[in-house]
Amino acid sequence: MKRDSLLLAAIAVAVLLAVVAGVVGWAAGHYTNRVTTVGAVTTTTSVRVSPKVAAGAHAFNQFACAQCHGLNGRGGVSPDVPALTQVGKALTVSQLATIINHGLGESANPTKPYMPVWGAVISKRQVSDLVAYIRAGLPSVADATPVAVPAGQGEAVAGAALYVRDGCINCHGPNGLGGVPNPLSPDKTIPPLSGRDFREEFNTEKKITDVIRSGSVIGRAPIVSMPHWGGILSDAQLRALVAYLNTLK
Ligand code: HEC
Ligand code: HEC
Known about the structure:
The protein folds into two domains: about 45-135, Cytochrome c-like domain (Cytochrome Bc1 Complex, Chain D, domain 2, Orthogonal Bundle); about 155-245, Cytochrome Bc1 Complex, Chain D, domain 2, CATH 1.10.760.10. It contains eleven helices and two strands. It is globular, with a radius of gyration of 22 Å. It is mostly helical and about 250 residues long. It is about 45% helix and about 5% strand. α2 crosses α6 and α5 (about 95-100) crosses α6 (about 125-135). The chain binds heme C (2 copies). One heme C binds near residues 167, 168, 172 and 198.
C-alpha cells in the first residue's frame, strides 16, 4: 500500500515536470526572430531565443549600445567602436560583465569615443541579460529596436526622441530631472540637465554641444562619467538634442 502511493506520487511529479517543461518551451518559442527578405515578404525564421536573450536585446537598445556598436552589434558606426559579433565567443561571461560594469578605461585620446562605465546605472540582472544576448550572437528580436526619430516636426521633437534613443535618459533621468545615483562621484549623483545650476553653468548652446561631443571624465570605474559622443552623433543630432534640452526649464 505504502509502495503504491509512493509510486503514484512519483508519477504525479513526473507529469508535473513535463507540464512545466512544456510551458517554458512554449514561452521560449514565442520570442522568435523576424527576418524581412528582399521583395517585401516578411517571414518568421525558426531561430528561437530565450526570454533572457530577448531581455538582453531590449537592454541593448535601451542603453544605446546599438548607437555606438551598431544594430545587432554589427559595427559600422565609427571606426573607433568595435563590432561585438566575435567578442561573445572570445570572452567569458565574467569578462563581458566586467567590461559593461567598468568600461575599458577612458581613451588615451580624449577626442575619441570610449566604452562608458555602466555599473551604477544598469542593474545586475540587465548586465547579465546583455551578456547572454552578446553570447547568443546578438540576434534580431521582435520589437527590440531603437526609438524612431520623427522627421519634419522640428528639432526639439527630434531631440526628445534622441534623448531616449541615445540613452541619455538612463543617466540624466526623464526630462533631464537627474537623480540617478553615482555614489563615488563628488556630487553622488549624475547631474540634472534642467534647473538653475545647469542653466547658469551651461548658458550657451555651444557649451552644451561641446560637453556632449567631448564627454567629461570625472573618474575611473566605478564612477560613471559622461561618455564621448563626437564621431557618434551628427551635428544635426547634436543641434536637436540641444533644442530639446532648451525646452526643459
Ligand atoms: C559612447 C559609445 C559606446 C556606448 C554607448 C557603448 N559602447 Fe561598448 N565600447 C565602446 C568603445 C569605443 C569600445 C572600445 C574600447 C576600447 O577598446 O578601449 C567599446 C568596447 C566594448 C566591448 C569590448 C569589445 C571588444 O572587442 O573587446 C563590449 C563587450 C562592449 N563595448 C559592450 C557594450 C554594451 C553592452 C553597451 C551598452 C550597455 C555598450 N558597449 C555601449 C563605445 C561604446
Ligand atoms: C553613462 C551615463 C551617461 C550617459 C549615457 C549620458 N551622460 Fe551626460 N553626463 C554624465 C555624467 C556623469 C556627467 C557629469 C560630468 C561632469 O560632472 O563633468 C554628465 C554631464 C552632461 C552634461 C553637462 C552637465 C553638467 O552639469 O556637467 C550634459 C549637457 C550632458 N551630460 C548631456 C548628455 C546627453 C545629451 C546625453 C545623451 C546623448 C548624455 N549626457 C548621456 C553621464 C551620462
